[in-house]
């Protein structure tokens, strides 16, 4: 009787363990939600180990690169952006900045790939939308450029130069009414647009129009 009772206890323990194992199958141990397979790998943890010193160094090179870019010194800007990336590859802002600089140097394929890299890292980064619009505008791909300018405005309704960019595209296409509409909005946001519009050839065929003159005077 003693031996028989011990066997029953062991068997009962095995059955109980089996029931517990079955009940845990298909349950995510982190969330408790059901999954298709308990063998699915967990996503990698985000990298939060960026060296603060390197991160600061990256930002410094990034700022220097932007300053050179604004002076139309694209080659030196790219060199600084490369240093910024080397210091902190997680600095997503740098890839789009380098990308648009490369586009101005004529490397559209490489430039677009870098802008897209920023968007892959941070899909909502509005400056990358604007860079994408300019990259396509430089290639005279106006439909895609308009799409990205509009997307920029959706993310930043006060983005002066997106309105201006759209105005120049419509001017180049001969759609003067749409051009004037977007030019008016750009000027409302920044009076400095007037001087730029007076100089740029996009509006050459519109300069004698009273509506245009009223906007830029």
Automatic annotation (TrEMBL):
Where the TPR repeats fall, as residue ranges, is 58-91, 126-159, 160-193
Q: Where is this region: Disordered?
A: 30-52
Keyword Metal-binding present in the record's keywords: the answer is: no
Name of the protein in its database record? Photosystem I assembly protein Ycf3
Can you name the source organism?
A: Methylomusa anaerophila
Which NCBIfam families does UniProt cross-reference here? TPR_END_plus (NF047558)
Task: Output compositional bias ranges, type Polar residues.
Answer: 30-40
- PANTHER family per record: CELL DIVISION CYCLE 16,23,27, CELL DIVISION CYCLE PROTEIN 27 HOMOLOG
Q: Which UniProt keywords apply?
A: TPR repeat
């Amino acid at each position: 009787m003693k031996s028989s009772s011990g066997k029953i206890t062991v068997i009962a323990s095995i059955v109980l363990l089996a029931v517990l194992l079955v009940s845990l199958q298909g349950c995510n141990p982190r969330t408790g939600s059901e999954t298709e397979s308990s063998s699915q790998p967990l996503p990698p943890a985000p990298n939060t180990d960026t060296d603060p010193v390197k991160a600061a160094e990256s930002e410094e090179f990034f700022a220097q690169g932007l300053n050179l870019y604004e002076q139309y010194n694209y080659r030196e800007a790219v060199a600084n952006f490369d240093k910024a990336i080397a210091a902190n590859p997680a600095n997503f802002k740098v890839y789009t900045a380098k990308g648009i600089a490369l586009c101005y140097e004529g490397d559209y394929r490489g430039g677009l790939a870098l802008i897209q890299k920023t968007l892959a890292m941070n899909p909502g980064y509005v400056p990358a939308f604007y860079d994408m619009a300019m990259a396509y505008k430089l290639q005279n791909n106006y439909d895609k450029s308009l799409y990205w300018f509009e997307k920029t405005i959706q993310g930043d309704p006060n983005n002066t130069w997106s309105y201006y960019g759209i105005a120049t595209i419509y001017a180049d296409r001969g759609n003067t009414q749409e051009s004037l509409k977007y030019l008016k909005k750009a000027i409302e946001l920044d009076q400095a647009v007037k001087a730029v519009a007076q100089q740029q050839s996009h509006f050459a065929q519109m300069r004698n129009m009273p509506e245009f003159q009223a906007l830029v005077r």
